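Field: COMPLEX_INPUT
Field: COMPONENT_COUNT = four
Field: RESIDUE_TOTAL = 404
Field: MODE = joint
Values follow.
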Amino acid sequence: MARSAFDNAQFLAAARQLVIERGPAMVTVDSVTQRLKAPKGSFYYRFASRDALLGELWLQSAVAYQEGFMAAIDADDGLGAALHTPAWAREHLDDACLLLLYSREDFVAGDWPSALRKGVREQAERVKDALTRFARLAFGATGSGQMRRAAFVLLEVPLAAVKPHLKRREAPPPLVDELIRSTFQAIAPRADAGRARKSTVA
Amino acid sequence: MARSAFDNAQFLAAARQLVIERGPAMVTVDSVTQRLKAPKGSFYYRFASRDALLGELWLQSAVAYQEGFMAAIDADDGLGAALHTPAWAREHLDDACLLLLYSREDFVAGDWPSALRKGVREQAERVKDALTRFARLAFGATGSGQMRRAAFVLLEVPLAAVKPHLKRREAPPPLVDELIRSTFQAIAPRADAGRARKSTVA
DNA sequence: TGATATGTAGACTAACAGGTCTAGACCTAG
DNA sequence: CTAGGTCTAGACCTGTTAGTCTACATATCA
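Field: COMPLEX_OUTPUT
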């Protein structure tokens, strides 16, 4: 039994379940190992700390979420990017609950483990680049006001629209897309003009 | 020195400061009493538990926030209710950080102390009644879709618009009002017709 | 076969949490 | 002046947490 009775993925999966069921604060090293019937030693053999586990868990989901978002942005499909949040939540309900219902700080409060710092920084930079690109497309400039609008319409509003449903662990209904679309067209009408005509039908 | 070296308000004030500086999770009985240089006994003489303290703190702010919100709703001023969130945040930055940056569950996780349960229930009911009244005004009905829209436009969007600024402990700039107003008009145009013309100027 | 990698196993420690309890200081009433 | 309620004071108890440490089992390779 010396060759891997457990592996990293199992610990991550157990932790994910616990986050979804009870929130990140209730994920303790003991609760994870108990659920897996693994000894503590095995956990600390694979993860440097609790923060390393929760950080990796968060980063995994954040990167997965980002993929489709970036694809829409790269295609200059602003509305598609805004609607990516409910779409992704429907496809990956568990991941969406984990990522969108809690904040990054709920997973790792203080300094991040050095192994993850680079990943987190890159993640943040990609988001910022995406917002910049969209701000230029939609508002013709990238000043602080335009960036603020971009974040509002691409991230904050979709998140707010989706959250109440995730709290009940249910997929966001079509109404959510309608709310996001209306808001998008009210605030960034120009971004919609050249592209993504199919998403606009209603 | 038997007559009150400390009183309830001081404990609540100390806890409030701690919430604002470090979040509700970092408010421990020890940290509160240390900040006040009060002994633990004095704390437990006045509060039944940590939950009693944090619950009262949350409820205080929630009721204070609600006052202006309800006033706008009672006047059928939907836009005014939506704009109440940034307005109140400007006037009461500390309370806004406490109430809007965290969720009720961050203050009291499980069951609420019986002394507060009634207050919390009434608070929730008032919000629900307000949303119902607004849904009828704005959408002509109070089905689940209309209620969802009402919550979105009166609470979720204003909260989302204000949050990034509260995280930096700064007052929401005028742009926030503009974002909320645009969203409101896109989603509940009818609610604006009869009233609150002065708020609509742009 | 036997040394070593790789990992399991879980008792243990130290810090800190919420909460209890007893002793006593002080004010007020009689 | 003294009795009793009000409140301070802080030692103490119990449970839980992240993290450590040593012992040991197994597969692989020389």
